[in-house]
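Readers of this paper often ask what the protein records in our data store actually look like. Such a record has a labelled line for the sequence and another for the backbone structure tokens. The tokens are whole numbers drawn from a learned vocabulary of local backbone shapes. We quote a single record here, exactly as it is kept in our systems:
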Amino acid sequence: MRDSRVIIAGGGIGGLATALTLHQIGVPCTVFEAVRDMRPLGVGINLQPNAVRELYDLGFAESELDAVGLPAKEWALVGLNGNDIYSEPRGRLAGYDWPQYAVHRGQFHMLLHRKVVERCGPDAVRLGSRVTGYRKHAGGVTAFVDHADGSASEATGTLLIGADGIHSAVRAQMHPDQPPIHWGGAVMWRGTTWGKPIRSGASFIGLGTHRHRVVFYPISQPDPHTGLSIINWIAEVTMDNSEGWKQSGWFRQVPVSEFAHHFDGWVWDWLDVPALIRDSDCAFENPMIDRDPIPTWQDGPAVLIGDAAHPMYPTGSNGGSQAIVDARILGACMVEHGITPDALAAFDAKLCGPISQVVLRNRGAGPFGLLNMVDERCGGTFDNIDDVIPPDERAKFMAGYKAAAGFAIEQLNKAPPTIPPGARVRAVAQAV
């Protein structure tokens, strides 16, 4: 019997969710992650109900998710005049069988890492180890690994899962002629500030226009003494991108003074955006980037998942969620087809086409496309949104996005578990 071990390139959300899924179905794996030390990096992300369902099926408790975030109650778009464009309940309040969570991305990542180490063993995640490429051969694949100490090695397994992000080396080898990273001109500044939650107390608010907006939502339960929560915020401006991105990197810490002026005067009786930005401990700048979809995520015994497969604009708040769903569907395909390229082909056939369309939807503003419609029809100023976009049209627009992204309420609630309880890969010995 050959070694049935699966190699996972990348220890981000998608890679770790894959490791937990493989452990659940009885498949050994090793994760190679480039960073030397796992640290709680990043700010806020949303976990949609389709991803939370999968986390519950992986054995995560609500209390564990509550420790790194809180259930979202509302999603709302607001115009620059302070009037609502659209609002709806989220999670269980909307009728889902599972909540939607707004979490601190770094703390959630650390939770996943702890679970992998607990369940798979301390050697399951090899830090300071970057997969730089692969070689296919009879019965499996060999990954080339560069280590932080300057050494290099090879790791052989049955399959290789490329979960190594938007700069994926696995994808670059699989598609050497892929176009460069796509930047549409939007620049984001991200940060967190202690503040008082507004509206429902757990509301996701998008305010402004499709070219000039701020998004904010709490990612912690209120402090029992002060009533303040950690408020995650994203300030965004679309600029001229004709000369491309001029900074030396894609992500950098910046002083608030570099960008706060874009939001001067954004003050209402219920919100002071300049104060929200100014009171942040630090801010990070990055362009809103993605990649053009590719025709396949598979190359024999190698496959891409997460941002390596479908890096997308964060306008739909579902990039991290999709990485988790990817891991689970990949696991289900292995339950059906074994640890084989056939499993990877089934995964690719199920997701590559539809999720590539989500990438393009998000590039077109995703659910924030309602802001585009408001601008086109009234220049962004209105007294009653129903006179600009009728309620039925707004609801239809949002329903279309949810269906494309895989979290339409009725469809999700009626769906059986992605991986049935107790399911295991039946014939590991034949998975060569």
Remarks:
- The chain is about 30% helix and 25% strand.
